């Protein structure tokens, strides 16, 4: 799986958009970009994923550059409850050789997002 | 629909003791995973299963064993606990490819301390 680089921490004011960047310059053509977050002491929570088109769901938007070497997760109106560690993960989606490679998420250090009043 | 549940939530073991962590999911997912998370670090995959009766090693399998006797349950065993296994353990499950869902759903975690 491709390696990702994220800033260690970011701040955001409540009600403003939070834009979290991720570099994945070695991404391969069939590798998806996934975003998860982990609120203190809880299990990780899926946010969004995409291949090359921009994606939006009820939680966030994902913007992937045309060369796919970087992406940005956008929380449009951050709230205090969005304070968490955000993980950008690049992985192949699907079943690998022998059916044993699917679903292995490689978590890095992530970005600690602090939303303040 | 409880999602993914883990038992117990907390446990303290002495070095050399054994224990089993239980993960249960009610989403009829084929795939299940066990991760560990050490302080200040991301999650690392211990073992995973792509279906009932099958298991496979992840990144850090040493010192752990797993079993998937029923589709909804995935057990993680520590035969002889060591202080290096002090960690928070997370279980997750997901649907296989081709069934719409791709994300992994995580349980609330088990905090294990080995003294």
Structure commentary:
The complex is a heterodimer of chains A (117) and B (115). Chain A is mostly beta strands and 117 residues long. Helices cover 0% and strands 44% of the residues of chain A. Chain A has strands at residues 9-13, 18-23, 31-38, 45-50, 55-56, 61-64, 70-75, 84-92, 111-116. In chain A, β3 and β4 (45-50) form a beta hairpin. The mean pLDDT of chain A is 88. In chain B, the strands form 2 sheets. In chain B, strands 2, 4, 5, 6, 9, 10 and 11 form a 7-stranded mixed β-sheet that branches. In chain B, a hairpin with a 2-residue loop joins β5 (43-51) and β6. Chain A binds chain B through residues 32, 34, 41-46, 49, 87, 93-95, 99-100, 102-110, and chain B through 4, 31, 33, 35, 40-45, 48, 50, 56, 58, 90, 92, 94, 96-97, 102-109.
Q: What series of H and E elements makes up the topology of chain B?
A: EEEEEEEEEEE
The residue ranges of chain A in which pLDDT falls below 50 over 5 or more consecutive positions are: none
Most extensive interface, chain pair and sizes: A-B, 24 and 27 residues
Got a strand count of chain B?
11
Q: Helix/strand/pairing class of chain B, anyone?
A: mainly beta
Q: Give the overall shape of chain A, derived from the CA principal axes.
A: globular
Question: For the terminal residues of chain A, how far apart are their CA atoms?
Answer: 37 Å
Strand content bin of chain B: over 45%
The count of β-strands of chain A is 9
**Largest sheet: spatial strand order of chain A:** 1-9-8-3-4
So what's the oligomer here? Answer: heterodimer
| Helix-strand category of chain A | mainly beta
């Amino acid at each position: 799986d491709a390696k990702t680089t994220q800033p260690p921490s970011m701040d955001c004011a409540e009600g403003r958009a939070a834009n979290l960047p991720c570099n994945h310059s070695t991404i391969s053509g069939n590798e998806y970009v996934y975003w998860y977050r982990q609120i203190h002491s809880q299990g990780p929570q899926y946010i969004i994923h995409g291949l090359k088109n921009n994606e939006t769901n009820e939680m966030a938007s994902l913007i992937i550059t045309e060369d796919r070497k970087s992406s940005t997760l956008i929380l449009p109106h951050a709230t205090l409850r969005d304070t968490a560690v955000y993980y950008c993960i690049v992985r192949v989606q699907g079943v690998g050789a022998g059916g044993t490679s699917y679903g292995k998420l490689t978590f890095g250090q992530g970005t600690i997002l602090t939303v303040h009043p | 629909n409880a999602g993914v549940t883990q038992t117990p939530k907390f446990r303290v073991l002495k070095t050399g003791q054994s224990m089993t962590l239980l993960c249960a999911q009610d989403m009829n997912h084929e795939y299940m995973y066990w991760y560990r998370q050490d302080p200040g670090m991301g999650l690392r995959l211990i073992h995973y299963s792509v279906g009932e009766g099958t298991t496979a090693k992840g990144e850090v399998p040493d010192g752990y064993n797993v079993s998937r006797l029923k589709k909804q349950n995935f057990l993680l065993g520590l035969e002889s606990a060591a202080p290096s296994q002090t960690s928070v353990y997370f279980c997750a499950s997901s649907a296989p490819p081709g069934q719409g869902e791709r994300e992994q759903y995580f349980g609330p975690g088990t905090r294990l301390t080995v003294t």
